[in-house]
Amino acid sequence: MSEPLVKVETRGRVGLLTLNRPKVLNALSNEVIDEVANAMKAFDADDNIGAIVITGSEKAFAAGADIAAMKDWSYTDVYKQDYLGHQWEYLRRVRKPIIAAVSGFALGGGCELAMQCDFIIAGENAKFGQPEIKLGIIPGFGGTQRLPRAVGKAKAMDMILTARMMDAAEAERAGLVSRVVPSDRVLDEALEAATVIAAMSLPSVMMAKEAINRAYEAPLNEGLLFERRNFHALFSTHDQKEGMNAFIEKRQPQFKHE
Ligand code: CO8
After folding, report:
1. Closest C-alpha residue for ligand 1 atom 53
2. φ, ψ for residue 232 (rounded to 5)?
3. Domain positions in the chain
4. Annotated active-site residue in 15, 109, 110, 143
5. Is 31 left (phi over 0), alpha (psi -120 to 50) or beta?
6. DSSP letters spanning 131-178
7. What does the UniProt record say this protein does (predicted)?
8. 6-199 architecture in CATH?
């Protein structure tokens, strides 16, 4: 049997996706993205999963869209299939937290895939970049929108216009990644973070994610109201009573995720 393009596993309450096209540095073909989106949908619908990790290999998280597959496409080909729409946009709709565990290259669509996740844990050998300009195109999967939000306009312009890569230390300073760890620790660190998150009350985790994302999509007043209403709503859950009682009684909470 041939190797799957994306390996899908569970580790306790954590769903783990591993991009698995090592010969082409995990180049993201439509087939790969279909498999990622389908696995994400299944994890999102599974009550036994509380957080998701997506990773690649030690050499590459993903070196971008599959250039060999794209090179002969015409405008009508990409327009008619709405390339980078539909399944590709699915990640945005996943309601559980997704952590990108990035080692090696995260370039073009690979950098954009990592930025669609909720946060990035990078290995010391990670390299981020949007080199599309060298191919006569521009980022098409959110790079021109998410990179400036993550690192500011100056660095985003610099990276997208010159195609230079950012190493892990610069990415951490710029706010693109949340932590940098030794390269051989990336996946373990991401799984540990995901396990911590998955042990929290799922409704509060989902509402926190939704509220943080509002900070990017709504004016401050709307975002603050959205946060406050969700804060109020959590007082209707079992887990809020359990969490607060456990604190007062000096014991660990037993969350039911409801
Ligand atoms: N697509 C297809 N094949 C690739 C890709 C890719 N993006 N990247 C690497 N490969 C292949 C190489 O062709 C090579 O294959 P082969 O062994 O058959 O020659 C193999 O992977 C190994 O690559 P290299 O020999 O080049 O390895 P190096 O260590 O010398 O270099 C680099 C590593 C620097 C990462 C280099 O491979 C590189 O520059 N890759 C292309 C990076 C790039 O331009 N990425 C942007 C692609 S365009 C894009 O992402 C469009 C964004 C739109 C949204 C996409 C949504 C996902």
Report:
1. 140
2. -60, -45
3. 6-199, 202-249
4. 109
5. alpha
6. GGGGGT----SSHHHHHHHHH-HHHHHHHHHH---EEHHHHHHHTS-S
7. Could possibly oxidize fatty acids using specific components.
8. Alpha-Beta Complex (3.90)
The structure's pTM equals 0.95
Q: Any catalytic annotation for residue 65?
A: yes
How far, in Å, CA of 47 to CA of 39, rounded? 14
DSSP conformation class of 214 = H
Distance CA 214, CA 164 (A): 30
Q: Are 52 and 97 in contact (CB under 8 A)?
A: yes
Note if 132 is an active site residue. yes
pLDDT per residue as tens digits for the range 31-71: 999 999 999 999 999 999 999 999 999 999 999 999 999 99
φ, ψ at 55 (rounded to 5°): -145, 175
Q: Is the ipTM of this complex over 0.85?
A: yes
Is 152 in the active site?
no
Which neighbouring-strand residues pair with 42? none
Range 106-133 burial, b when 16+ CB lie within 10 A, else e: bbbbbbbbbbbbbbbbbbebbbbbbbbe
Q: Which fold has domain 202-249?
A: Lyase 2-enoyl-coa Hydratase; Chain  A, domain 2 (1.10.12)
Q: pLDDT by residue (tens digit) across 122-147?
A: 999 999 999 999 999 999 999 999 99
Q: Which residue, 91, 133, 134, 137, is CA-closest to 116? A: 91
Ligand 1 pocket test target in 5, 6, 29, 67 with most atoms within 8 Å of CB? 67
Whether the CB-CB separation of 183 and 86 falls below 8 Å is answered with no
